[in-house]
């Protein structure tokens, strides 16, 4: 009876549909990132951030679903079912993980704005690569209702928009 009472009258955890700046820097529209696979929208809707430092935080609240072996990308699933990928740099997979330190693992629960990684921007630049941070919702086509993101200068962990799923 007590469980039923809590279910009927207890507080339900409100899903966090916010999108957070994944790093200090300038948020830009996805079409402006240098990687054509992302800028074309083929990987899903999203945005880029030109970073001013290498301290990376979770762009959404949810469950960590994937950490690339080369540490350049981390995947999340939000409570609303949207699947989000953060991709650190363009062609950084070629660096075999060297500029990255990842502090999360699959199945970890994260809050939006929680520290998840560091990226050595100097090492990425020395390799002649673009250090843009790309965030995309990989299941946009089937599940995304609306993504709103405020462009411009933001601090890591700032709420910069929302990602709502289709009902």
TrEMBL record:
Q: Which UniProt keywords apply?
A: Kinase, Phosphotransferase system, Sugar transport, Transferase, Transport
| Subcellular compartments | Cell membrane; Cytoplasm
Family matches, as InterPro entries: Dup_hybrid_motif, PTS_EIIA_1_perm, PTS_EIIA_component
Q: Which GO terms describe its molecular function?
A: kinase activity
Gene Ontology BP terms: phosphoenolpyruvate-dependent sugar phosphotransferase system
Would you say which domain of life the source belongs to? Answer: Bacteria
Can you supply one Gene Ontology CC term for this chain's record? plasma membrane
SUPFAM superfamilies named among the record's database cross-references: Duplicated hybrid motif
Q: How does it sit in the membrane?
A: Multi-pass membrane protein
Pfam (any one): PTS_EIIA_1
First-listed, main subcellular location of the protein, grouped into a coarse class = membrane
> Could you tell me which residue ranges the PTS EIIA type-1 domain spans?
35-139
- What name appears for this protein in its UniProt entry? Crr
To which species is this protein native? Schleiferilactobacillus shenzhenensis LY-73
């Amino acid at each position: 009876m007590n469980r039923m009472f809590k279910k009927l009258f207890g507080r339900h955890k409100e899903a966090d549909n916010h999108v957070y700046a994944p790093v200090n820097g300038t948020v830009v529209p996805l079409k402006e990132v240098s990687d054509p696979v992302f800028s074309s929208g083929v990987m899903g809707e999203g945005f880029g951030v030109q970073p001013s430092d290498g301290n990376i935080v979770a762009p959404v609240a949810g469950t960590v679903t994937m950490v690339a072996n080369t540490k350049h990308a981390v995947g999340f699933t939000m409570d609303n079912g949207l699947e989000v990928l953060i991709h650190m740099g363009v062609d950084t997979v070629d660096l075999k993980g060297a500029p990255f330190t990842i502090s999360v693992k699959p199945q970890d629960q994260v809050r939006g704005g929680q520290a998840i990684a560091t990226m050595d921007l100097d090492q990425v630049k020395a390799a002649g690569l673009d250090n843009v941070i790309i965030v995309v919702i990989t299941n946009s086509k089937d599940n995304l209702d609306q993504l709103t993101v405020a462009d411009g200068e933001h601090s890591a962990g700032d709420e910069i928009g929302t990602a709502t799923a289709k009902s």
